Amino acid sequence: MQAALADLLELLELERLEVNLFRGVSRDIGSPQVFGGQVLGQALRAAYATVESGRLAHSLHAYFLQRGDFNAPIVYFVDRSRDGRSFTNRRVTAIQHGEQIFHMAASFQPPQPGVEHQLVMPEVPAPETLADSAALPAETLARLPEEKRRYYARARAFEFRPTEPLDLLEPRPAPPSQRIWIRAIDRLPDDDELHRCLFAYVSDFHLLNSATRPHALSFLSTNLIRASIDHAMWFHRPVRVDEWMLYDIDSPSASGARGFARGSVFARDGRLVGSTAQEGLLRVVNKGATAD
Question: Which among 59, 96, 204, 248 is annotated as catalytic?
Fold first, then answer.
């Protein structure tokens, strides 16, 4: 297995401190705080460790309360809210430096038959015909600030191939939507729990970017402060994150220094495997300001 993906799997392996208490470490991926997807994945992993075998996560709803410090461990406390006949509910609180930085509610269910329907997957170019968004030309990398260069130069566990790439250095107004093929860089074990935790991790990439596109802003804009406020996911069908998935994202609204985005995730065979929604802070400010 390639090193970047092996490192991510290690990141999801939490240390059990007590029956409902777990500790995880962080990675610096070049962002000013702990990546939100990491906390989502670890929190879901902690919840899974307290759930009866055979029950799978079908939804989660989370709030990011404070920026995480990637130089310090994160402790996850799992509240066993309910163990019902059909559904199991857990509440996870992430604590760092003695304060809550995140909390999440998640629900689990054993596989059950029922009615089925879904949206139709949009028609887009095949991933093999598109470029990886992380593979920036050397001349572009050279023009990036040091912290942004570090973000793009770091080896990643996933590859991202947008159907309509945005010029990061000179963005122009574009529709508030994007479609991106996503896949882990190597083969993974046949473990549904692991794939759902990794699905939670990768779902935080690119989601809020859709809300910045109409305003000619990008990840590299120095006058933009952005941070996730909340994140919700629904797991509709079994997913393999080591096979191509299409992330179909749109942003219906931005107002009050907040942007809202939602996504549908399709397996390559057309199955709708998950849905996401997120609201985040989007504040255009003078250089040097910080988020609260």
Answer: 204
List phi, psi (to 5°) of 260: -120, 135
Q: Summarize pLDDT for 210-222 with one digit per residue, the tens.
A: 999 999 887 777 7
pLDDT tier at 112, thresholds 50, 70, 90: very high
Catalytic residue (one of 228, 251, 264, 275) = 228
Among this protein's residues, is 190 annotated catalytic? no
Q: Which residues contact 236 (CB under 8 A, 6 or more apart)?
A: 58, 118, 272, 273, 274, 275
Q: pLDDT tens digits, residue range 147-157? A: 677 777 777 89
At 10-58, the pLDDT tens digits run 999 999 999 999 999 998 776 778 999 999 999 999 999 999 999 999 9
Q: Among this protein's residues, is 2 annotated catalytic?
A: no
Closest CA to 247 of 171, 172, 161: 161
Give how far the C-alpha of residue 100 lies from the chain's centroid of Cα atoms, to the nearest Å: 20
Which of 96, 107, 251, 278 is catalytic? The answer is 278
Q: Is 204 a catalytic residue?
A: yes
